[in-house]
Write a structure and sequence with these properties.
The chain has about 300 residues and is an alpha+beta fold. It has a 6-stranded mixed sheet with strand order 1-6-5-4-3-2, with helices on both faces.
Amino acid sequence: MAASTADSAATSSPEGPEVFMPTTEERKRLLRGVIPRARRLGVDDTLRGWSWSAPPLLSPYEVPLGLSEVASAYCETGRDVYARRVLGTEPEPNEKMLLGGSLHGTLRDWVVHAKRSLYACGVGRIEEALERIRTFPAPELPEAKTLLQYETDAIEFRIREAMSQFPRIGTDAIVAQVLPVTLGQMLDGAFLGLSRRLSTDLLNLGEPVVLDIIFDDEKRSFHRLTLAGYALVLEAVYEFPVDVGLTVYAGFRDGRLRMEREFTVLGDEVRMEFIEARDEKQRMVAEAMDPGPCEGCEAWCGR
């Protein structure tokens, strides 16, 4: 089986592209390094999502967990899933979860607004489109303001760059060029024994790339499981290969946005790791096996 590897690329360029968009250097590294390496390593066909009807992907339990419940290991023993699914405890979101949810929501609304502005004006009225993009209502949250200011500056740069490079570009093409992202793609995870209402973000860089934007958190080894899980679901639903994922770590310090992007080759190892986590947590719920609290468990989880 091929090993899964990660390729880190730290970025905080003031004139760089959007949060989710790789810089020119990162894109070159992706196209000439990460993707070719993923192709060389390959993926065992039994670990492609379209092989969901046979082991090891075949789900042994009728417990449709959310993908984040499987992939997350913030609670090291998985008791958060036990508490929610077996004990019926409703978690109270902490400050970090509330901030992340608010920023994700703001970003999704802004992307829709920016695309709508471009389609409404077309390339024939690009200055008006830029003016419309700038009219997005300013959020109250300081971090959201910083994020949107960055996005607005960045998309103006990318639009002017595209218009300069491709003077005859059409409206649909420029949207694909400057905003090749789908935020909140809905997926049915039932093929893999998961929830039927999953939602993920995708980046189209010539190949589909699963995108995970994480706000105000450090790197964790299990973050790559989220990418692997969504790749498996996408392959099960659409039957095309998904070999690369991108995690964007975005934080705020002194009113500035700081970012680091990490590409992950979604090889056999990380796919198997996700499936093992799924089986283990589904078994825990199906058989009501209390794994016990971990050190630092949230109050609702460890009670």
